[in-house]
Design a protein that fits this description.
- Chain B: It is found in: Cell membrane.
- Chain B: InterPro entries: AAA+_ATPase, ABC1_TM_dom, ABC1_TM_sf, ABC_transporter-like_ATP-bd, ABC_transporter-like_CS, P-loop_NTPase, Type_1_exporter.
- Chain B: Keywords: ATP-binding, Membrane, Nucleotide-binding, Transmembrane, Transmembrane helix, Transport.
- Chain B: One of its GO terms (cellular component) is plasma membrane.
- The complex is a heterodimer of chains A (623) and B (637).
- Chain A is of the alpha/beta class.
- Chain A folds into three domains: 198 residues, ABC transporter transmembrane region fold; 106 residues; 241 residues, Rossmann fold (3-Layer(aba) Sandwich).
- Chain A is built from 23 helices and ten strands.
- In chain A, strands 6-7-8-3-9-10 form a six-stranded mixed sheet. Chain A has a four-stranded antiparallel sheet with strand order 2-1-4-5, covered by helices on one side.
- In chain A, helix 4 runs parallel beside helix 7 and helix 9 crosses helix 13.
- The two termini of chain A are 54 Å apart.
- Chain B has three domains: 179 residues, ABC transporter type 1, transmembrane domain (ABC transporter transmembrane region fold, Up-down Bundle), CATH 1.20.1560; 114 residues; 257 residues, Rossmann fold, CATH 3.40.50.
- Helices cover 62% and strands 9% of the residues of chain B.
- Chain B contains 23 helices and twelve strands.
- Classes of the chains: A alpha/beta (623), B alpha/beta (637).
- Chains A and B meet through helix 1, helix 4, helix 5, helix 7 and helix 9 of A and helix 1, helix 3, helix 4, helix 6 and helix 8 of B.
């Protein structure tokens, strides 16, 4: 069933649309070092993606070709018209015939110009459309990939890097077709055919007219590549400046408390100056080069005027031919300057594409086994059989070692231990946020690696320490795992989590928008919301991962009382620092260094006079 | 089940709901409430304020405008030189090359001047615009360092950041384009003038196509702008949804929302695609119009100008020059009509910038403010203090108490009793409405804020750390503090051991707001920071969140160390801290209701003893009902 759903819902991003070479974890963060081969294969892959829109590609390329031809006709027609006037003056033809010839040239010129405008519009539109369609597909693919990649991936990759890939790198790939491929075609044709026409008309004058092309092509490429390099640097410096400002404003009370305004201004000025200096440097890269390009163009034009003039005097060419040359040069000027942009677009697409594909090719380490079956819950018994685990980055040092325990429906298991002892890690193994490296976790005898992820995660809910709120209404946040829930259920859950009264006090009640851009909730309120959110799920196993730390003891008591019925129908696992949160558990596991060092009920453990007792005494004393 | 959900969602998307069930309570990527993007095209007040920032660069502006005008002049001149060369220097069979030589010389001169002017103008404009921008940002940032804290409390950091970044950046476009507009106007008038001067009738006929473009642009612009805005909007929504998926990925996966989110995101991404295609249509539709009009102008020149040449009324060079001008004369119209939108956007941003620059500064040093000497006695006294963020609703009412030098006083009381406000007043974050706050015997309003801040160290409930090394965080602005002093402080508060266990010890880089440390560890570092500040008076708001017992113990020890030899004013949440204080002040509803040490207060049998006897680990744990009951019982007795 899971497979079927995949095929229905993932059609726009079927794996062959994206290509599917798998790469080791984290390879995409080191793209800059990639060589030419990789860059080229990236460009080929983007090109292949573009070609999946054959009609639009065909229209774009077809209209580019037509546009070039029409574009080149314009100088010809202008020259022809100029010559027609000259012939008439010299009395070569009658006045009426000359008038008629001029009319024909004029109408042709009008028609060619208008038509060129139309095909250029088509060329630009379809070239952009190809890019936007590819961007749409890549957007979906990125989103889906990011949603599916395992926790171990997200632990290692900075969220800012992923956002950069999804926003900026995607943009670089989108622009590839119109600013790199189509422009390359346009420029090659325009300069190539144009050069042929000019040189075949007059080799010397033609070469002189084109003399600025190599220089401008070279300078504009160098300029763009240097600007690109400094752009990355500038972004970095600007983000340092932003961070200085943001931390200052966020921590303004600290700044004021230490009377550190002068120091903060100094920090700001340093960051600001560094960004400003580079912005000035960029002006210094850009301006001399563009000015030199303009000068070289005008210089070539001056030469054409001088040599062409002499040739006219010598009677070798007509004024019309000179006009053709001059007009052709003005037409060519802009496109030649764009060579730099084109080179930059190739470079950009290559690095952006490598990073983007690096993400899309990531292997999803935690996924359904080929023969995975839906989880079936009958007794609702959770078992840890000799479970060991180590994070991929620290494989030599297991975080969890040889854990054994069993929990039946209605039972509460508490896990307690010093910070870093592996408590949360144990909890994260149950919904397969990570896979065990030894032993097995079973639910009603089914190894969790052999059931489908979707059914497993519906059965196992973890109330996280750091609750994430989505920027939407409180109602939507509570119903996050069950968007079709009835209103009464949402209210009941929030009542149990001791949140209902608070919500009613908000200006828009359950419709109040919370999250990053909404009303901000305190730590305790966030945790209560997360508890309510989890209660909506009806899981078979629920884990409270230190999720009441910011809730005061009394409120926690009331939540626990309200949840008594809820707990009766499932296995509850509680991880907490505060012993009062877990004294009532059916079994308490004291964990240190990933191993269970003591287990039993509260009374049994106190009687043991071991680690648990020591912790108990410590807490009673400090309070 | 999931298939059903997906179907249902799909149904919702197409607005087909045959089963009558409600739509899902699900969205991805919230719709951002965008600020006003466009203001009036011209806001005199905004222009005046921005001009104030540009004034220091007056000389540079003068240079750039002059260079720009010279640059435009050479652009106009070049076709004229070509015309001269064709008409006077290229008579077929002529022997006299001097005219052509003169033309070539003039051409060379013109392009050199063009180069120099272009270079100067672009460099000066580019750099000056950046300078003005950075100056504006600095002025705003400096203002925010001094504005009242109640403004900062009300205003989200994100909002201020978008002032400092987005709005400042949108001025960049405006500053550069305004200058270039001067060039555009000069070019437009120049072309019109030269064309009419070359031949009035031909000029008039040719220029008649210009208004057509102008009119078309005026109709096109508002529609195109809407299309561009829509594309911009859908883009930021889709990007927001992606960012949310990244930040919330753990929740998404544990709640199995991938399927639903993907379908919802597809909607956003598709809307983004659609609006971008529409925007592309609007952007491209101008191409055939401009090309068609250029073609029309050229056709007119050829027919009318051609027959004029045959009549001998004009020379052929005029026609060639016209063809040059025609290819240029749509450019200024394009950029000038764009300038209108740029102006509107800049005025909207400028308005918001000036709002920040004009935020009132409530707490200011008096002209004759004195520096608080480090030799002062370290006492703190409240004399009949009445204070409220809103003067009509005082949070402190006629509060008087004195903290003697070296004494530790715990402030306790239910939430909203005015503890935090009292603490803020010692530091003069706000000014009192009535009465006086005295530090070292001086009214805080008579002291410089700088010297007051140096003598009053503050530890906030939420430890705030800056990006940077552990060392930099502990030292903070005391740049004169040595490494030994920092390590000594860290050892004193018990932070040394865990700091040394970090990969780079004191040089370890802290993540954003110290994110890679636990709450307890951040607390200890903020204690060390207060210790290095070495102030006579320490004001401390104890953390309420639960920390593991071991770190908790460290913090309690550190607290004792921190208060050694200092006057301490502690907002206490934990009974251990309260009991350790020399004296306890109980606040309720903004009034001091009890004072004394633990034993005295217990003996008195007032609110304190009632709260204490409820046997909660911390006063914050006491449920409101019990609190209300005790308070009532208390007020009845």
């Amino acid at each position: 069933m899971h497979r079927k759903r995949n095929s229905v819902w993932n059609t726009p991003v079927s794996s062959d649309a994206i290509g599917s070479a798998t790469k080791p974890l984290n390879s995409f963060t080191h793209v800059e070092a990639a060589g030419w081969g990789r860059g080229l294969s990236t460009l080929l892959r983007i090109t292949r993606m573009n070609l999946r829109h054959p009609w639009q590609v065909a229209f774009a390329i077809g209209s580019t070709l037509v546009a070039v031809i029409l574009q080149l006709l314009i100088p010809k027609l202008l020259g022809q018209a100029v010559d027609q006037t000259q012939t008439a003056i010299r009395g070569g033809v009658t006045g009426a015939a000359a008038e008629q010839a001029l009319w024909i040239s004029a109408l042709l010129l009008l028609a060619v110009s208008a038509l060129r405008g139309l095909v250029t519009m088509m060329q630009n539109y379809f070239a952009e459309a190809v890019g936007h369609h590819v961007a749409y597909e890549l957007r979906l693919a990125c989103y889906e990939k990011i949603q599916r990649l395992s926790f171990s991936f997200h632990d290692h990759v900075h969220s800012g890097d992923l956002i950069t890939i999804g926003l900026l790198d995607l943009e670089g790939v989108r622009m590839y077709f119109s600013t790199a491929l189509v422009r390359a075609l346009l420029l090659t044709m325009l300069i190539g055919i144009g050069a042929y026409m000019l040189i075949s008309t007059d080799p010397v004058l033609g070469l002189v007219a084109l003399s600025f092309v190599p220089f401008v092509a070279w300078r504009s490429s160098v300029t763009q590549l240097r600007l690109r390099a400094t752009w990355l640097d500038l972004q970095e410096r600007v983000s340092v400046l932003s961070r200085v400002m943001e931390e200052n404003l966020g921590g303004i009370r600290v700044v004021r408390a230490f009377a550190a305004q002068a120091y903060e201004m100094l920090k700001f000025d340093r960051a600001s100056k560094s960004a400003l200096d580079l912005a000035h440097d960029r002006v210094d890269i850009y301006v001399p080069n563009t000015s030199a390009m303009t000068l070289s163009f005008f210089f070539a034009m001056g030469l054409v005027l001088w040599i062409g003039g002499n040739k006219i005097i010598a009677g070798e060419i007509s004024v019309g031919t000179l006009a053709t040359f001059l007009t052709f040069m003005t037409i060519l000027q802009m496109p030649v300057r764009q060579i730099g942009l084109m080179v930059n677009a190739f470079a950009r697409a290559s690095t952006c594409g490598s990073r983007l594909f690096g993400l899309l090719d990531q292997d999803i380490t935690i996924r359904d086994a080929p023969d995975a079956r839906p989880l079936e819950i009958s007794e609702g018994t959770l078992r840890f059989d000799n479970v060991s685990f180590a994070y991929p980055s620290t494989e030599t040092r297991p975080i969890v070692k040889n854990i054994n325990f069993e929990a039946r429906r209605g039972e509460t298991i508490a896990i307690v231990g010093p910070p870093g002892s592996g408590k949360s890690t144990m909890a994260h193994l149950i919904p397969r946020f990570y896979d065990v490296i030894e032993g097995a976790i079973t639910l009603d005898g089914q190894d969790i690696r052999k059931v489908t992820l979707a059914t497993l995660r519906k059965a196992v809910a973890v109330v996280q320490q750091d609750a994430f709120l989505f920027t939407t209404t409180i109602e939507n946040n509570i119903a996050y795992g069950d968007p079709w829930a009835k209103e009464q259920r949402i209210e009941r859950a929030s009542e149990s989590a001791q949140l209902h009264n608070y919500i009613l006090g908000l200006p828009a009640g359950y419709e109040t928008v919370v999250g990053e851009r909404g009303v901000s909730l305190s730590g305790g309120q966030r945790q209560r919301l997360t508890i309510a959110r989890t209660m909506m799920l009806r899981p078979s196993v629920v884990v409270f991962d230190d999720s009441t730390a910011a809730i005061d003891a009394a409120t926690e008591q009331r939540i626990r009382a309200a949840m008594r019925r809820f707990a009766k129908e499932r296995v509850t696992i509680i991880i907490a620092h505060r012993l009062s949160s877990l004294m009532h558990a059916d079994q308490i596991l004291f964990v240190d260094n990933g191993e269970i060092v003591e287990r039993g009920t509260h009374e049994e453990l106190l009687a043991k006079r071991g680690r648990y007792k020591a912790l108990y005494d410590l807490q009673m004393r400090s309070e | 089940m999931a298939q059903e959900d997906a179907d249902e969602l799909e149904g919702e998307r197409n607005n087909v709901r045959d089963d009558g069930r409600r739509p899902p309570r699900a969205v991805v990527g919230s719709h951002r409430i965008e600020e006003e993007m466009f203001g009036r095209a011209f806001d005199q007040n905004v222009i005046r304020r921005i001009w104030a920032f540009a004034r220091p660069y007056k000389a540079k502006l003068f240079i750039s405008v002059s260079a720009l005008l010279i640059f435009t002049g050479t652009q106009l001149l070049i076709p004229l030189i070509i015309r001269y060369a064709i008409d006077h220097g290229m008579a077929p069979g002529g022997i006299d090359h001097s005219y052509l030589l003169a033309a070539a010389g003039a051409f060379l001169l013109a392009i050199l001047v063009n180069f120099a002017a272009g270079y100067t103008q672009e460099t000066v404009v580019g750099k000056t615009a950046e300078n003005v921008l950075f100056d504006i940002r600095r002025a705003m940032f400096a203002r925010l360092q001094r504005v009242s804290l109640s403004f900062m409390d009300k205003t989200e950091v994100g909002r201020l950041m978008s002032r400092l970044q987005g709005d400042v950046n949108s001025m960049h476009e405006f500053l550069e384009n305004s200058l270039y507009s001067v060039g555009d106007i000069a070019l437009l008038f120049g072309i019109v003038f030269v064309m009419l001067w070359l031949d009035f009738r031909l000029g008039l006929v040719t220029l008649s196509v210009l208004p057509i473009l102008f009119i078309v642009r005026i109709f096109w612009l508002p529609r195109a702008r809407d299309a561009f805005m829509a594309a911009h909007e859908t883009n930021s929504v889709a990007n927001g949804a992606l960012a949310e998926a990244i930040h919330g990925v753990r929740t998404v996966q544990s709640m199995e929302r991938q399927q639903v989110n993907f379908i919802l995101y597809d909607d956003k991404a598709h809307a983004n695609l659609r609006t971008h295609l529409i925007a592309a249509k609007y952007a491209q539709v101008m191409v055939p119009i401009v090309d068609g009009l250029t073609g029309l102008a050229m056709a007119v020149v050829i027919v009318v100008g051609g027959s004029m040449i045959m009549n001998g009324r004009i020379d052929v060079g005029v026609l060639v020059a016209y063809l040059f001008y025609i290819q240029r004369f749509f450019d200024p119209i394009r950029s000038l009509t764009l300038q209108y939108s740029i102006m509107q956007r800049a005025m909207a941003s400028g308005k918001r910038l000036t709002d920040v620059l004009d935020v009132k500064i409530d707490v200011q040093d008096k002209p004759d403010a004195r520096a608080l000497s480090p030799e002062m006695d370290g006492s703190v006294e409240f004399r009949n203090v009445t204070f409220g963020y809103n003067p009509n609703h005082p949070v402190l009412k006629n509060v008087s108490f004195r903290v003697h030098p070296g004494e530790t006083v715990a402030l306790v009381g239910p939430t909203g009793s005015g503890k935090s406000s009292a603490m803020a007043l010692v530091h003069r974050f706000y000014d009192v409405q009535q009465g006086q706050v005295l530090v070292g015997g001086h009214d805080v309003r008579d002291l410089t804020q700088e010297s007051l801040g140096r003598q009053v160290a503050m530890v906030l409930q939420e430890p705030f750390l800056f990006t940077g090394t552990v060392f930099d965080n502990i030292r903070y602005h005391k740049t004169e503090a040595t490494r030994d002093k920092v390590i000594e402080a860290a050892k004193a508060v018990g932070a040394h051991d865990f700091i040394m266990s970090l990969a780079d010890g004191y040089e370890a880089q802290l993540g954003e707001r110290g994110g890679n440390l636990s709450l307890g560890q951040r607390q200890l570092i903020s204690f060390a920071r207060a210790l290095v500040a070495d102030a006579k008076i320490l004001v401390l708001d104890e953390a309420t969140a639960n920390i593991d017992s071991y770190t908790e113990m460290l913090i309690q020890k550190a607290l004792i160390k921190l208060l050694e030899g200092r006057t301490g004013l502690v907002i206490a949440h934990r009974l251990a801290t309260v009991r350790g204080a020399d004296r306890i002040i109980v606040l309720q509803n903004g009034q001091v209701i009890e004072t004394g040490n633990h034993d005295q207060l217990m003996a008195a049998g007032g609110l304190y003893s009632k709260l204490y006897n409820l046997n909660y680990a911390s006063f914050d744990d006491i449920p409101e009902e019990e609190l209300d009951a005790s308070a009532q019982a208390d007020s009845q007795t």
